[in-house]
Amino acid sequence: MRLFVPITLVSIILLITSGFVYYLFASYNWGAGEIFMHIHLWLGLFFSFYLIYAIPRHIKENTSKIKLNNFRFVSYSLMGFLSITLFSGILHFIPYLSYFFTPIYYQFDTYNLISKVHLIFASLVSIFFIVHLSLHFKKVKNENF
Amino acid sequence: MRIFKYKKIIIASFALFFVASFVIYGLNPKVEYKGIDIDDVDFYSLPWDKEKPFFPGELATADAKMGNPKAIPSSSECVKCHKKEFEEWVPSLHSISGRDLIYENSIEVNVDLMKNHHGKELSRFCDSCHNPIEVAMGKNNPIISVEPSDVQTEGLACVFCHTATHADAELGNGAITFDLNKAYDNLSGSAILASPTDHARAFGSAKTNKLLKSAEFCGACHNERYYPPVTPSQKVLHAQSTYDEWKNSWYAKNNITCQDCHMNYEPVKFIGDLQKGIVEKPEKYSHNFWGGNHVLQDTNLKETLLFLRGGVLPGVDVKEYFRLIDKQKPTTLKFLKAAAKVEIISKKVVDKTLEIKVKVTNVGAGHNLPTGVVDQKHMWLELKVSDDTNQTIYNNGKTDRDENVVIWAERFRDKKGKIIMDHMTFKTADITLTRPTIPPRESQIITYKVVLKDALKVKNIEAKLWYKIAYEELVIKTLHRNIPIPKFLLASDKEEIK
Lengths: 145, 498
Known about the structure:
The structure holds two protein chains of two kinds.
Chain A: H1 4-25, H2 30-62, H3 69-98, H4 108-144
Helix pairs in contact in A: 1-2, 2-3, 3-4
Chain B: H1 2-27, E1 60-61, H2 75-78, H3 83-89, H4 101-113, H5 119-130, H6 132-137, H7 158-161, E2 164-167, E3 176-178, H8 189-194, H9 196-202, H10 205-212, H11 215-219, E4 223-226, E5 237-241, H12 242-247, H13 250-253, H14 258-262, H15 267-275, H16 303-308, H17 318-337, E6 340-350, E7 353-362, E8 378-387, E9 392-396, E10 406-408, E11 410-413, E12 419-420, E13 430-433, E14 443-451, E15 458-468, H18 472-479, E16 488-496
Parallel strand pairs in B: 1-3
Antiparallel strand pairs in B: 2-3, 4-5, 6-7, 7-14, 8-9, 8-10, 8-15, 11-12, 11-13, 15-16
Helix pairs in contact in B: 4-5, 4-18
């Protein structure tokens, strides 16, 4: 688990930034915007698989160290929000990949729902991730002094 | 120490993102659809208004340029994802509005009629509604310098309506402005499948859909006026006023739009509900465009139908084409029948004369009956009286050619006042009505007087309202064949005298 923090940090930052850049700025240049989408989708997929492997270990290693209830609440909420975000992201990835084989797609309303869920929970992940890191830094700082 | 390491990773991640963004945006400059300058369309002729390249049609492009044949996608591109909508649109008349053989040949004949008076340029008037993409590309020209593409053969193709930005129903004659730049989002198929919402966003669908749901959008083509140079007359001739008819009706006052009936998944039920006073606008709209042309959906005609519809559309094979038409046909027939009602409301004998009153009501259409190109689409009433031995005593209106037949049609007339039966638009100098068409939710009462030898023998009275999509003269003129056009029974009533 030595690389858990760098991998997670880099992945989440790149996923959040690429996602929001695509959402907010793609319409100014769809060609460039699409590249952000490709990066976002593939990175999201690999990160999802990585988390399936890494999160149980991360929890196992750290749960006993968490003494603050707030930190515990934020961490578990973050995990929940992240799961929903990644799951809704994978729901976007399935039709994306299917295009190269047998295209499958959902009803437009279903897409709308998935997109909204993905966006709302990604926003929550961004906030809770910052809080999670802040609490972690605070804890480390307290331990050092 | 660990905090410092994390900070470094965070800063490095953001730095990586910013560098990547600059590289991505730097290597991918915005690709825009570029319309073609009118001067760059070789030999493009502008005999009238230089500012209006599609005149006498009222069509316009948002960038005031000609359409780019290399960049405008065919509807067969859209079918990859919008299969349902494509399959609804394929059997409709909107998909063949440009390639329908009778229409296409009618254009040729009209153009030929005016060959020394910018006939080809005049055809922009007709094609502004029937084949707007072709007009926008500059194909309606004496010398064609536009390379062919699938979308030019698709009549009202997906990109036309779904890039519309403005419509003027009062002006009519194809007064739609469309922004082809919207059909050029450059998103790959996989990206669209991942997030079609963005494709809709690129097309500006929130704004466009509002326009597409309005009656004004339909009215831009379903209001047709002939004025010079289209007609030799100096006055404006109202050839088609479907939108105006709707606007003055109960339907417009109750916000029932064209789309509510013609793009309804269950149009007959919707019309039935309206008659019961139930107004429930559909949540979703189909692309069937239910209309009045049952002949061009008659699959019993087999190869002839294919011939009349101008062959198969790009993106569909013959078998599938017939399957889709067959699927739509029953509703088209029921839809037509839902429009009118015929009632024998009274009968009395006065001095050996049987007086019969027949009431014809427009019960289901949000426009007059008949409507559209009424010099061709017409309806007439047949009254048949028979005796107790089933012998016909009186029969008026067996065909639309009968003497004194009660018929609802327009008569195009040339400069000499002679009736034009074959839709020669460019020589139409006047338009008259045989009798006023029937407005929505209104009736006309027709009185018949049948002279009888023996009134007691009258047994059956039957009234039938027939509809025909065109006159045979049009087929003779355009296809050089004398093919009888089938008549369609819109409504009937029968009374037995005991």
